């Protein structure tokens, strides 16, 4: 091996080749090193050219969808409050000071009642005008554990009704805005902030226990109809105590605000839609709500319509941040959400502490619905007999709850013909075709009647309708004027739309 190396190095050609290789390696290394150094200098220059982002720079106000958890740098006061709250939650806060702060509640509710309140856990879902006032009152009254759920952030337009937000909070999540302010008032309160949208899919997690403590009460302050219905249905089916705030928008009369069962709530579009959707899910009563009976009238605020140019651009539903979320400006007098929120909290405090209170009586009409169902059954039997069917044992696919839903939610307890509210009954609107009885199952006969085929009339109107339309040769258009026919069509179209929620 050594002799081969000696011969090779002694060769002039080999020396030239070795020199060329070494030179190439050195030059290549030098070029690569220069390129790397140039890149490093360029990156350093680029970084140096980017100005520092101060607290007032606009990018600090840009948030993700639903806002970020810490958009603004805490002030010195916020930092002191957060530090005090952290110590207080660990028990480093004199209990005598807490009792002195809660002294007025203490003498009102007694020591036993206040202790129940102080050891309670309440969830507030929706932290806008209603929810913020509710949360503030709960914390000031002594509730020790609060979970706040809201996906939204504070806007300038929030400030006319939000209990705690300031200009410096604009762009921050509502849940953290509330926590930050209330830590300065009741530092011992344990806050669990969920900057997220409530959904039925996440209900088990969002309404779960806190430190092993199941929620004593849930406050619904949501203004999105889908989330609201999902929450109330979930609470009802899982036997969780809940109270719901209906619509405060377009309301101005505080003397018309009531707390009662959802079956008794009237004169409120949000209440109507919520009640109707819940009834379609089998929930017709048993949920306390705060609602206003104030009726709209000349000169009063109304939901502002979208400009025509927005409709011209295409589907207006695309303007909303969520499906079925409101996309029009809802006029709100700043005082009304506060009254709704305080009324909700007042009820929660009385319920948790066991303080005596009474509800508005709900409308119990089960006997009336049972009578209407029997009358409808008889009408179907007579109709079947008139066309040659054996009506003995005929069943109809309509329940007492269905009757109550149609009478209350679709026809509002009035005849579609005359508007009268006494001696009501349900009857088919159109004459059925000859094959309206299902006899496919041996020993069973049932009518193929559907809810959307029924209308509400007085008994006298129904007798005439049955004779001349259902058993006679006339059509509804021959018997009633165009206004009545159009009203029925609209009701049937409306019921068909709501049928998807059943």
Descriptive notes:
With 502 residues, this protein is α/β, with parallel strands linked by helices. It has a seven-stranded mixed sheet with strand order 3-2-1-4-5-7-6, with helices on both faces. A three-stranded mixed sheet has the order 8-11-10, with helices on one face. α9 crosses α10 (269-280). The protein is extended. It has helices spanning 2-10, 12-49, 76-89, 95-101, 103-118, 129-141, 174-182, 203-206, 225-237, 269-280, 308-312, 335-353, 366-386, 400-410, 459-470, 476-479, 482-498; strands spanning 121-125, 145-149, 190-194, 217-220, 242-245, 257-261, 288-292, 394-395, 424-428, 437-438, 445-447, 454-458. It folds into two domains: 61-299 and 312-353, Rossmann fold, CATH 3.40.50.720; 366-501, no CATH class. The longest helix is centred in the N-terminal third of the chain and has 38 residues, at 12-49. The protein contains 17 helices and twelve strands. It is 45% helix and 10% strand.
Gist of the model:
With 502 residues, the chain is α/β, with parallel strands linked by helices. The chain has helices spanning 2-10, 12-49, 76-89, 95-101, 103-118, 129-141, 174-182, 203-206, 225-237, 269-280, 308-312, 335-353, 366-386, 400-410, 459-470, 476-479, 482-498; strands at 121-125, 145-149, 190-194, 217-220, 242-245, 257-261, 288-292, 394-395, 424-428, 437-438, 445-447, 454-458.
């Amino acid at each position: 091996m050594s002799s081969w190396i000696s011969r090779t190095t002694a060769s002039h050609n080999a020396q030239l080749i070795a020199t060329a290789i070494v030179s190439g390696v050195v030059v290549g290394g030098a070029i690569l090193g220069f390129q790397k150094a140039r890149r490093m200098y360029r990156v350093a220059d680029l970084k140096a050219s980017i100005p520092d982002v101060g607290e007032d720079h606009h990018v600090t106000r840009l948030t993700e969808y639903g806002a970020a958890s810490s958009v603004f740098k805490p002030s010195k006061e916020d930092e002191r409050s957060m530090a005090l709250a952290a110590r207080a939650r660990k028990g480093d806060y004199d209990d005598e000071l807490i009792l002195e702060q809660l002294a007025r509640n203490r003498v009102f509710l007694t020591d036993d009642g206040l202790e129940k309140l102080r050891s309670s856990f309440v969830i507030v879902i929706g932290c806008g005008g209603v929810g913020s006032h509710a949360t503030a009152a709960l914390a000031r009254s002594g509730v020790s554990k609060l979970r706040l759920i809201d996906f939204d952030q504070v806007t300038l337009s929030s400030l006319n009704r939000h209990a705690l937000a300031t200009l410096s909070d604009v762009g921050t999540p509502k849940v953290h805005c509330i926590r930050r302010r209330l830590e300065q008032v009741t530092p011992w309160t344990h806050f669990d902030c969920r900057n997220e949208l409530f959904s039925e899919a996440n209900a088990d997690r969002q309404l779960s226990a806190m430190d092993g403590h199941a929620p004593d009460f849930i406050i619904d302050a949501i203004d999105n109809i889908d989330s609201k219905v999902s929450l109330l249905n979930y609470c009802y089916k899982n036997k969780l105590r809940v109270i719901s705030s209906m619509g405060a928008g377009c309301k101005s009369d505080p003397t018309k605000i009531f707390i009662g069962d959802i079956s008794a709530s009237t004169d409120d579009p949000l209440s109507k839609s919520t009640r109707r959707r819940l009834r379609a899910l089998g929930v017709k009563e048993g949920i306390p709500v705060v609602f206003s009976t104030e009726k709209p009238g000349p000169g009063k605020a109304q939901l502002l319509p979208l400009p025509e140019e927005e409709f011209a651009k295409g589907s207006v539903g695309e303007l909303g941040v969520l499906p079925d979320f409101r996309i029009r400006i809802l006029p709100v007098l700043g005082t009304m959400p506060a009254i709704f929120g305080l009324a909700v909290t007042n009820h929660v405090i009385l319920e948790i502490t066991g303080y005596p209170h009474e509800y508005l009586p709900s409308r119990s009409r089960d006997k009336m619905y049972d009578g209407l169902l029997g009358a409808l059954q008889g009408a179907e039997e007579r109709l079947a007999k008139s066309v040659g069917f054996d009506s003995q044992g005929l069943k109809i696919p309509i329940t007492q709850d269905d009757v109550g839903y149609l009478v209350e939610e679709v026809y509002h307890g009035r005849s579609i013909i005359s508007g009268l509210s006494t001696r009501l009954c349900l009857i088919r609107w159109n004459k059925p075709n000859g094959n309206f009885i299902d006899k496919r199952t041996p020993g069973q006969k049932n009518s193929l009647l559907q809810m959307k085929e029924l209308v509400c009339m007085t008994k006298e109107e129904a007798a005439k309708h049955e004779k001349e339309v259902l058993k006679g040769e006339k059509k509804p258009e021959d018997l009633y004027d165009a206004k009545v026919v159009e009203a029925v069509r609209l009701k049937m179209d409306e019921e068909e739309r709501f049928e998807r929620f059943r």
